[in-house]
Amino acid sequence: MPLPSLQDIEAAAQVVYREFQPTPQYRWGQLGERLGAECWVKHENHTPVGAFKIRGGLTYFDQLARQGRMPREVISATRGNHGQSIGWAARAHGVACTIVVPHGNSVEKNAAMRSLGVQLIEHGDDFQAAREHAMGLAEARGAHMVPSFHPDLLRGVSTYWWEFLRAVPSLEVVYVPIGQGSGACSAIAAKRALGHPVRIVGVVSAHARTYADSIAAGRVLEAPVSTVLADGMACRVADAAALDILRPGLDEVLLVSDAEIAQAMRHLYTDTHNVAEGAGAAALAGALQQREQLAGRRVGLTLSGGNVDAAVLAGVLAGA
Fold it and tell me: What domains can be seen in the chain, in order of their start residue?
C-alpha cells in the first residue's frame, strides 16, 4: 500500500479543518521530569470525538463523495473510537451507519456512538469476532463495509503527525500506540512526507501481541487478547497491509503491560490533568520504559484518546 504523499496529507488537512482546527501540542514540565527529557504531548484527546480516529473517517467519506460512491448504508466494527469516527462522518453525509462492537465493550463509547445516530450491534467476545460479523452483515445487506485500515483512513490520520512534526520540528523520538495500525502508520507517513529524521517507537499491549509478534516474524501471527485497560489496542489479528508499512518504518517496538498503562494514565492525570484511555496512555508507558535512554532528548508522545469509562478511570486513579 503506498503511503500518502505530502500533497495528499495537506489536502486531507483541509478536509479535517472543515470540522475542527489542529489539536494542540504542549511541553509538559512534570512529564519531562519523569522522563529526564523535554516532553511534548500531542493532544488528540481534544478532537470532537476525543480521539484521533475522526480524521480518518472524514477523509474516507470525502473520498467516497469525490468518487461518486456514497452508499446508502455503511457498516464497520470497532472498540469505540473508529466507530465514533465513522458515525460522525456518516451523519454529516446523511448515510445510515451500523457499528458492531464485542460484548462487554465500553459503556460510554457505546453511548457516544449511539448519540451520533449509529445503530449499535453487540456480537462476539473480541474485536475480531465483531469485525467478521460486520463483514457478513455488510454482504447480506448490500451495505458498504468500512475497514479499520485503508489508504483513505490513513490519509486523514496522517494529518495529526504532520501537525506535530511541523509544530515541534526538533523532536528526536516519538512513541505511538499500535491498535489496528493506522496511528503508527500515519506517523511513518508524515515522517517520510516531511523528510523528518525522527525515530518512531511503536508500543504494543503485552496482552494483545499480534503486531509485535507479526513484526518480529515478518508475517501475520494471531495472538490472544487479554488486556483489560487497552481496548483500543485489543487486536487479535494484525492487518497485513499495516504490517507491510510498520515492519520497515518503525525503529523499535515495545510491549507494555496493563499495570504500566494504568501508571501512565495516573501520571497524565496528575501532571497534565488530561484524561487518557488505556491506549491513549500507552505512548507514555513505552517512554517510561526507556527513560534512561532519553536523558536530555526531545521526546514526543501522543495522547491518542481520552474515552475511558468513568468507573474504570476512578479505579485506575485509586490505584486499582
Answer: 6-51+151-317 (3.40.50.1100), 54-145 (3.40.50.1100)
User: Grid coordinates standing for 304?
Assistant: 491518542
Residues 18, 279: contact at Cβ < 8 Å? Answer: no
Beta bridge partners of 256: 205
The helix (H) or strand (E) run that includes residue 210 is helix 210-217
Dump pLDDT digits (tens) for 93-127: 999 999 999 999 999 999 999 999 999 999 999 99
- Compute, in degrees rounded to 10, the torsion defined by CA atoms 217, 220, 226, 228: 100
Place of cell 478536509: 15
Dihedral pair phi/psi, residue 105, rounded to 5°: -65, 165
Collapsing DSSP states into helix, strand and coil, what is residue 301?
strand
Amino acid at 161: W
Q: Are 289 and 256 in contact (CB under 8 A)?
A: yes
DSSP strand pairing (38-43 vs 25-27):
antiparallel
3-state secondary structure (DSSP) of residue 17: coil
Over the stretch 268-317, which tens digit does the pLDDT of each residue have?
999 999 999 999 999 999 999 999 999 999 999 999 999 999 999 999 99
For β-strands 298-303 and 173-177, DSSP reports them as parallel
State how far the Cα of 171 lies from the Cα of 273, in Å rounded to an integer. 23
Q: What is the CA radius of gyration of the chain?
A: 18
Q: CA 307, 184, 126, 256 torsion: positive or negative?
A: negative
